[in-house]
Amino acid sequence: MEAPPQPKRGRPRDPERMRRVLDAAASQFIELGFDRTSVESVAQASNVSKMTVYSYFPSKEALFEACIGERCNGLFDLFMQAQLDPAHPREALSRVGTLFLELMRHPDVLAMHRMMFSSALTHPELCAAFYTQGPQPALQHLANYLLAADQAGALQLSPQGAARAANQFLAMFLGSEHLASLLGMALPSPQQDAALVQQNVAMFLRAYRRDD
Fold this sequence. Notes:
By secondary structure, this protein is an all-alpha fold. It has helices spanning about 15-30, 40-45, 50-55, 60-80, 90-105, 105-120, 125-135, 135-150, 160-170, 175-180, 190-210.
């Protein structure tokens, strides 16, 4: 790990300069991976000094976590902000499934997952940071919706089972097509993804729809 120099105190932060640092770091982390990215190369790419980078982020790990947080916020925002009607789970879950597939097919998400898998044994704390800033909030968002649908009388599940049901639903989208995408093979067509959403929603509702 690089030993960071001590930053000067009281130095004001330039939002535009910090944005350049984060953008340069995100591009290099995704392209090169964590180990091959250096603070010096990030500084050069963002046209700032190495000391400036360290004045914002005390270590390369802190810089990485900031990049992951920024990228997760941007990519997961649409998924998290989807308006879901608890009384109509078929439409809501179709929306969730569509957004989730679009998210998982995004080139940056695929690149981040590849990078995380390659770092899992050497940098588990970085993988944990990614999980807590991206996938975990998305799962909780869906679990909250499922509980609301249960309270609305549209679904039937226990409070303890909401998290498990949310995990089951999203996991149905991470089969062979997702594995092929991670391996750099051709992405499924929009028609194939639309059919997958329809099939997974139907299967989920057969398991959890409240019987009248």
